[in-house]
Amino acid sequence: MQSTIFFGLLCCAIGATLAHPMPEDMTMKATPPPQYPLNLQGGGGGQRGDGFGFGVQGHEKVWTSDNGRHEIGVNGGYAQHLGGPYGNSPPQWNVGTSYTYRF
Known about the structure:
The protein is α+β, with helices and mostly antiparallel strands. The chain is 17% helix and 42% strand.
């Protein structure tokens, strides 16, 4: 009698295990890297009597391919020297694009 009850409980346990299989992928999805809206860099300096020079540069990604291997960005910058023995320089502007391919 005890072996029959044990066998019945064992069959129920095996049936319950097979009735609810575990999902195939139990891993968590990868967290995407943070997206920063704009990369800005700047600086300036000078010495007494020599004027002051400064500049600002920026870069922004405008397109990335689905697999992340191709990327197009836009660059821009501004620089100027103020004061000093030669006076103010004209402002220098630059604009460009960049293409990145990751092997």
